[in-house]
Amino acid sequence: MRDKIFWTLFILSLISSFGFDAKAKKISIGLLGKSVHPYWDVVRRGMEDAAEELDVDAIFYVPQSEDIAKQIETLETWIAMGVDGISFAPSDPDAVISVIAEAMKRGIPCISNDTDAPKSERLCYIGTDNYTAGKIAGEKMVEILNGKGKVAICTGSITAMNSLERMKGFRDVLSKYPNIVIVKPDPLVDNEDTARAVELAETALLDNPDLDAFFGVYAFNGPSAAKAVKTAGKVGKVHIVCFDTTDEHLSLIEEGVIDAAVGQRQYFMGYLSVVLLANMARVGVENMMMLLPKNEEGDVIIDTGVDVVTKDNLKDYIKLLEKWGGKR
User: Which residues does 314 contact at the CB level (< 8 Å), separation at least 6?
Assistant: First the structure.
């Protein structure tokens, strides 16, 4: 965790490292998210705060729901506009390969946020190490279940890399515990339809009367499972470990319906995207890339880290969110 915080602060320090010509053309940056949800509101706030501090124009867009075609259309529009940088969170990493290649060809630096697209020509990834975060969720689930029980996995996508990596990390931990069983179908896929997510959770409870827990992979999966558990009168009997910490999640943790939530630091995904792209525009892509730490494969991954939130540390976490701009 120290390394994650260190590199976050390192990138933040770049804000004051470079001067800029106030008379120069104002820099424009596009940030593309995945769907309308309070999670992305926090990303947008981070983007807006950095844009104000660095005096750049930042454009934020998310489709109403996960829509690969709409994402590509938006990227193509920004390329045609000639924006100075793009940060994108692809619903399907492979689907954006050609459009990101076109942007890079035209001299528009591209980085991924929240969900990586390593096969594209993107310069770096800013966001959660989703495999590690999935393992953290799995370890918490094992702790809650005391190493035995039946678990249902719920997700909004089986193409997005963040979903796949979280589930892999989660399963890799649970595979070491033969008395924990993941029920079928695995996973329950709702395609980011909240009503469908609730329906699938309710069906899982009916099909598995002895179900012990839900693992919610996407931001709305935890609250959707919580609704099903409350309706079934099984609060405290069916546990929930999930991702993300919107106001709804925090209320359900306080209520005792959600046991633990893996909180991402998505504010920094928006904030650092603007910081990095703005400085690339001002001092050059190569100059900025030289300053960034590379992993063993030579790739630049800026891990924003996670926090495991439970009823025990809820108050302290809310104070942390206020500090980061996650609650206003």
Answer: 250, 253, 254
C-alpha 146/C-alpha 196 separation (Å) is 30
In a domain, 58, yes or no: yes
Residues 26 and 96 grouped into a single domain: yes
Domain that holds residue 169: 130-264
Q: Which two tokens stand for residue 297?
A: 């494969």
* Residue range 223-250, pLDDT digits in tens: 999 999 999 999 999 999 999 999 999 9
Count how many domains the chain has.
2
H-state helical runs in 97-177:
97-105, 130-145, 161-174
Whole-prediction pTM value?
0.83
Distance between CA atoms of 197 and 193, rounded to whole angstroms?
A: 6
Residue 113 maps to which CATH number? 3.40.50.2300
Of the candidates 157, 113, 75, 162, which has an alpha carbon nearest to the alpha carbon of residue 276? 113
> Residue 185, preceding bond cis, omega within 30 degrees?
yes
